[in-house]
Target: GGDEF domain-containing protein
Amino acid sequence: SPRRPAARPHVDTGALTLLLLCAALAVLSFAWARSPLFLFIYPALAMLAFHARAAWVFTAIFFVSILASALTAHGLGPIARLSPDGHLMREDMLQPYLFSLLLVVLPINNAVGEKRRYTSRLLLLKANLEYAATHDALTATMNRQMFETVLGTLIARHDSGIVLFIDIDDFKSINDGLGHQAGDEFLKAFGARMRELVGGLHGSVGRFGGDEFAAIVPGAFSPAERDHLCASISDALRAPYRFAGITRSVTASIGAAMIDPGSAGADDLMRKADIALYMTKASGRNGYTLFGMPPAANAVPPPSMIMLQ
Model:
């Protein structure tokens, strides 16, 4: 396969501009010793400390220090004017000047850096809280409230699609026979498979509690396509699961309802899907029912139909 071009390193143009400004001010202030330009180095460095990371600040101080030392050694700048004949005195006066630059920028940069870290922690905490408030902790699928919000948004946009209400057949036997910890491990595996199946169709998955899940698959479906979709999902859910050190196949019952541009609302659609799910269970489970249609058998779909990825 062709190799992707290497990503170009990101350059902070704002910080680079301020760094060059500090260097230019150092040169100009020491070249024109009678001007007070050297005083403007302080606010320039302070601005750099506010808007850039510590590496940029130390780089700017390094360049300013090199330039100031070199120009002072050649008898240029305000420090050389104050001690025109004494090289040692120039060094004694230059050191406090350079040290004063550090005293200006380091506290600012430390405070700004701490504020950035605090802001990052707050944003991370906010994201974690939002995720916890909208997702099921065990299966990492949406919780019921978030799922119904997504479904309501789809209906409000007058989009088409299909909503599935899914119940794991005989889940109680896993809990009773293998223990609740194994049951939780299976629910994780089941949720992961649902996310994989529906996520590839740009859909959403939610857990309504216990062994009940729901899914939304957006799009316009012909009668053959909707049957194929439900049959393919039902067939994929029967494939063996690996959990708690064992491999086991489990079936699921599915109730489906079509999402049309004129759908009444999320509650009405979920009610229809629940009725369809009840009909699937009443007819022997391990299958699917579309609301308003008789329960369907899980026949293998013909090759002409598009298979789920």
